Amino acid sequence: MLLIDKLANHSNNYPKLDLSSKSLQLTASIVIPSYNSAKTLKIVVSQLLKQTAVKQIKEIIVIDDNSQDSTPKVMDEVIKSSSVQIIYKRNDIQCFSGECRNKGLNYATGDIIFFLDSDIAVSLDFIEKHLLLHQLIDKCFSFSFRSYISEEDFENHNFEFPITEYNKEFRLNKIIPEAWCETQEQKNWANKEMRLYEFTDGFRNLSSVNREYFWTLPEVALIGISAIKRKHIDAVGGFVKEFKGWGYEDIAFAAKLIALGLFAIPVLEVGTFHPNHPHRITDHQMWFKKNKELYYKCLNSEIG
Q1: How many CB atoms lie within 10 A of CB 80?
Q2: What are 179-205's pLDDT values in tens digits?
Q3: Which entry of 25, 95, 115, 179 is 20 to 30 Å from 69 by CA?
């Protein structure tokens, strides 16, 4: 069966969940691909070391994608002061995010794998709430939303949560440009506010293939802020290594997880913080176009 056909048959109608405090049984490994992120990486790791569930963290794994900044020096300092095992590996050549995550999996021993981008700081109970969710539901992967904050606030650790309305979080609040509208059902949204999470009942009613709401389920499940059982990652074979540069490698991975029958579940009880800096990846529009073509090729490939 084609991947796109499996996606079309998927229902994301996950049950209501109570993530109040319970005894944590699962352990976590955190995989962070990094490229020229010395300025943010130390802060990202420091937030992980202050987690309410820090005892559940088996290791933090940083895969440095041949950075040309001071990342090795920063990581040396972080490792010396860490109460949690930190594994730092540096690529001899640039491999990009998907392959870095695959490499990180080689060192992960936890039940739940957390994928975090190197410029994403998490609220202090982020690990705890995601672990609780995975104790309640076996066939799922989880993710949280981003709030964009100033670089100054990020450097000063101004991570206040809860947030009443995420800043620039497209899945919560987005004005749809008329230029985006292609079909008649999309034109009904032109220049109107879309509250995607709200309108689709927490993505329970969001299609994995139909673009009525402009985004499909794989596109909203941002893997750079996610938690997944190791056995499910192994079942889909990890990330497709042919993706290069920026864009779509995480969407293709999410699509494979959804086709496996997993619920894609957002966790609003916790949040993440992203510094509002310029895009740091060169030629990202060129890579984005190529990766989009590869994604649609993956959708029309056979899957077991």
Answers
A1: 8
A2: 999 999 999 999 999 999 999 999 999
A3: 115
